[in-house]
Write a structure and sequence with these properties.
The chain is an alpha+beta fold and 431 residues long. The protein contains 14 helices and 23 strands. The chain has helices at residues 10-21, 51-60, 71-75, 78-84, 98-101, 103-113, 126-134, 161-173, 241-261, 294-298, 306-314, 353-358, 393-404, 420-430, and strands at residues 2-7, 27-32, 42-43, 65-68, 89-90, 120-123, 142-146, 155-158, 184-188, 194-202, 206-214, 217-219, 223-226, 231-234, 267-277, 280-287, 302-303, 324-325, 329-336, 362-366, 369-372, 375-378, 382-390. Strands 16-15-10-11-14-19-23-20 form an eight-stranded antiparallel β-sheet, with helices on both faces. Strand 1, helix 1 and strand 2 (27-32) form a beta-alpha-beta unit. Helix 2 packs across helix 4 and helix 7 packs antiparallel against helix 8. The structure holds adenosine monophosphate (AMP) and glycine. Glycine (GLY) binds next to loops.
Length: 431
């Protein structure tokens, strides 16, 4: 099989690397990719804002399957175009991608199908939003979400009225997120630990891929501004087999059934961001693709033929049981540029990549890197995800940080506590 991976980042590096392990895969092509991906795949340039260009590449390379990394590619209708030309692609149609790309769509959809989520209202003007806040319906803190894709910046958890009003103004008056702020979702603030739940969908069925916990804040102990994700571990010790069955029955199955009944069967990776509340798991958000950095800790866990399982899903006939999770634990630490998340210094030479990759049981995935004058330099906010594997979270964490310790570049920042919560859960079980 020949597989094309679309995108450029740590998630796409993990996808390309894992697909390359499959005996059935003869070649992985990645577009546009990055220097790390170039070690496991043949790189081709492509304009990822142009669905016809991506289809042209898949046809020219005669690939058997295309796998999409980022949501923006799906929001442009790339999967629709591939399917119209009979080219297998793993990723939802533009309409199914609304589960992630429009929070108003996702909330109304969940309400229609009885999927547990925070109580909410969709507001179509600043006046309506202020009236909702004034009604006191949700109390404080309250959560405000710009409807569309806002590069991870569209969600505000407001502690008081002034902060909530400022969020309304930013989104709906100043239009800081452009059209993404034309609608605003105002919702109840939920409390509880957050877990990420991943399934592979073929339009009718969903097979579990695993669970993980992300670390969204820039600094240790979950302090500081939100980021795209500073690290993750897998599997989540909070998701027991019973809870996984509940999530599948109350959340995943109704979503698949609802999308199918509404005429938009969901094909692709579905990532449910969940809060484990005292009243049971509730959906915080859906993503219609793999998570980053969750992919980097879940994909190395999956044993079995990945490419043919993804192709079966793309063709509407996925089967459970082809992919077995390993019993190992995985901890992934994101190494970011100075200034991230507000800005990102680029062009800094990175030292120690080979030494880090040579640490036993460590994996180094590239996110924001590029080649310059024969060296690998930084190119963006999140630069690398360094993953450690171990029989316990403690050993996985030690391995990840030993490998991070080999890497150096100007301004480099990373959290020192990725995996700590999992190690604590592990010690409780032992005690
Ligand atoms: P999102 O951009 O949708 O991933 O949201 C960013 C973060 O905001 C989530 O990871 C949660 O920590 C938080 N969040 C979103 N919705 C809620 C909610 N209803 N209650 C509490 N926290 C929330
Ligand atoms: N890890 C968060 C995301 O991929 O959106």
């Amino acid at each position: 099989m020949r597989v094309l991976v679309l995108g450029t980042g740590g998630r796409e590096h993990a996808l390309a690397w894992r697909l390359r392990q499959d005996r059935e895969v003869s070649e992985v092509i990645a577009a546009p990719g990055n220097p790390g991906i170039g070690e496991v795949a043949r790189l081709r340039p492509v304009d990822t804002s142009d669905p016809a260009a991506m289809l042209g590449l898949a046809e020219a390379e005669a690939v058997d399957l295309t796998v999409v990394g980022p949501e923006a590619i799906l929001d442009r209708g790339t999967a629709d175009l591939f399917r119209a030309h009979g080219r297998p692609i793993l990723g939802p149609s533009r309409q199914s991608a609304q589960l992630e790309c429009s929070k108003a769509f996702a909330k109304n959809f969940m309400a229609r199908h009885g999927v547990p989520t925070a109580r909410f209202r969709v507001c179509d003007s600043a006046g309506a939003a202020r009236a909702t806040l004034a009604s006191g319906e949700f109390g404080y803190p309250v959560v405000l979400k710009a409807d569309g894709l806002a590069a991870g910046k569209g969600v505000v958890v407001a502690m008081a009225r002034e902060e909530a009003d400022a969020a309304v103004d930013a989104a709906m008056v100043e239009r800081q997120f452009g059209d993404a702020g034309a609608l605003l979702v105002i919702e109840e603030c939920l409390a509880g630990p957050e877990v990420s739940f991943f399934v592979l969908c073929d339009g009718t069925r969903a097979v579990p891929l695993g669970t993980a916990q992300d670390h969204k804040r820039i600094w240790d102990d979950d302090r500081g501004p939100n980021t795209g994700g500073m690290g993750a571990f897998a599997p989540s010790p909070l998701v027991s087999p019973d809870l996984a069955a509940t999530i599948q029955a109350r959340i995943v199955d109704p979503v698949l059934e609802g999308m199918r009944r509404e005429g938009h069967p969901f094909i692709g990776f579905l990532y449910a961001g969940l809060m484990l509340t005292p009243a049971g798991p509730k959906v915080i958000e859906f993503n219609v693709r793999f998570g980053d950095p969750e992919a980097q800790v879940i994909l190395p866990q999956l044993q079995g033929p990945l490419a043919s399982t993804l192709l079966a899903a793309a063709n509407g006939c996925v089967q459970g049981g082809t992919l077995a999770p390993s019993v190992d634990r995985f901890v992934g630490v994101v190494v970011a540029s100075g200034g991230y998340p507000a800005s990102a210094e680029s062009g800094q030479p990175i030292d120690g990549l080979r030494r880090a990759a040579a640490v036993p049981d460590a994996l180094v995935f590239h996110a924001g890197t590029r080649q310059m004058d024969g060296r690998i330099v930084t190119a963006g906010g999140r630069v690398l995800t360094v993953v450690g594997r171990g029989a316990t979270f403690r050993s996985a964490m030690e391995t990840a940080y030993r490998a991070v310790g080999e890497i150096q570049f100007n301004g480099m920042q990373f959290r020192r506590d990725i995996g700590r919560k999992a190690v604590a859960a592990e010690s409780e079980v032992r005690a």
